[in-house]
C-alpha cells in the first residue's frame, strides 16, 4: 500500500492540479496466517484513531485478506466502525477498504466473471475467492502463489505476473485481478497483461486508489492505472 498507491497518486499529479500527502499507521503482521490477520484487524481502530489526528480527507484500509478472512461482507462492517472512530475524534473521514474497493471496482467495469492472482497460501486464497463469489462475482479461475512471508510478498517480481496469467485460462473471463493484495507489486505489469489478454486488468492497489479518489469526488483518471483508472468509472 505504501508503494503503489502513492505511485498512482503521483502519476495523477502529472495530469491534474491536486496534490496529495500520504500518512500511514501500521497494523503489525509478519506471517500471512489467519491468526495474525485476526490480530492485525483488531489493531485497525487504533490506526484509524491515530490517522484522524492528522485530519486526513480519506482513509484506506489494506490488507484485503485481513478483511476477507473475517467473514462475508465484513468490509462494510469495518468501514462503518472505523468511520465512527474518526467521528469520535472530531475528525470525520470516509474509510475505504481494499476488499470493498476491489469488489466495487470489478462491478464498476461491468465484469461478472474474473480470474484472480493472489500471493497467499491456498486456504487463504480460497477465502478470498469465496468472499468475491459471495458478492455476486464469478471467479472462473484463480492462482495462489503460496508466499507465506509478508516481506517476500512485497519482494515478488511483478514481471513474473504476465507469465503466471499466460498459464491460466482467461478465455471465459471479463477481467483479470492481477494482484488481489496491495502488498504484492503489480503496476509495471498491468498494461502488458491488458494487452496480453485483451481484457481489463485491475489490482487491489488500483481499486483502492480508485475508491479513495471517488470518496474525494475527484476525477479517477490515472496514467498507467489500467481500465478502472481510465477516468470512465
TrEMBL record:
Pfam families: Amdase (PF17645)
Residues at which substrate binds: 63-65, 120, 150, 182-183
Active site: 63 (nucleophile), 181 (proton donor)
Root EC class: isomerase
Positions bearing S-(2-succinyl)cysteine: 63
Keywords carried by this UniProt record: Isomerase
Gene3D superfamilies in the cross-refs: 3.40.50.12500
Catalytic activity entry: maleate = fumarate
Role description: Catalyzes cis-trans isomerization of the C2-C3 double bond in maleate to yield fumarate.
Extra facts: Reaction is initiated by nucleophilic attack of cysteine at the double bond, yielding a covalent succinylcysteine-like intermediate.
Family to which the UniProt record says this protein belongs: Belongs to the maleate isomerase family.
Subunit (UniProt): Homodimer.
Protein name (record): Maleate isomerase
Annotated organism of origin: Arenibacterium halophilum
Amino acid at each position: 500500500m505504501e508503494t503503489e498507491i502513492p505511485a498512482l497518486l503521483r502519476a495523477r499529479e502529472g495530469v491534474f492540479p491536486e496534490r496529495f500527502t500520504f500518512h500511514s499507521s501500521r497494523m503489525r503482521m509478519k506471517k500471512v496466517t489467519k491468526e495474525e490477520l485476526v490480530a492485525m484487524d483488531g489493531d485497525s481502530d487504533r490506526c484509524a484513531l491515530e490517522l484522524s489526528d492528522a485530519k486526513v480527507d480519506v482513509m484506506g484500509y489494506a490488507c484485503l485478506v485481513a478483511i476477507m478472512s473475517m467473514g462475508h461482507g465484513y468490509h462494510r462492517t469495518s468501514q462503518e466502525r472505523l468511520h465512527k472512530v474518526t467521528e469520535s475524534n472530531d475528525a470525520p473521514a470516509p474509510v475505504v477498504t481494499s476488499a470493498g474497493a476491489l469488489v466495487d471496482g470489478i462491478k464498476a467495469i461491468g465484469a461478472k466473471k474474473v480470474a484472480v492472482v493472489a500471493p497467499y497460501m491456498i486456504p487463504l486464497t480460497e477465502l478470498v475467492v469465496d468472499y468475491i463469489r459471495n458478492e455476486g462475482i464469478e471467479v472462473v479461475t484463480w492462482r495462489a502463489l503460496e508466499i507465506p512471508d509478508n516481506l517476500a510478498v512485497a519482494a515478488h517480481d511483478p514481471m513474473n505476473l504476465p507469465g503466471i496469467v499466460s498459464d491460466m485460462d482467461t478465455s471465459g473471463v471479463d477481467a483479470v485481478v492481477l494482484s488481489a493484495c496491495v502488498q504484492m507489486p503489480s503496476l509495471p505489469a498491468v498494461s502488458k497483461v491488458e494487452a496480453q489478454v485483451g481484457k481489463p486488468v485491475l489490482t487491489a492497489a488500483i481499486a483502492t486508489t480508485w475508491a479513495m479518489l471517488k470518496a474525494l469526488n475527484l476525477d479517477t483518471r490515472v496514467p498507467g492505472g489500467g481500465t478502472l483508472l481510465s477516468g470512465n468509472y
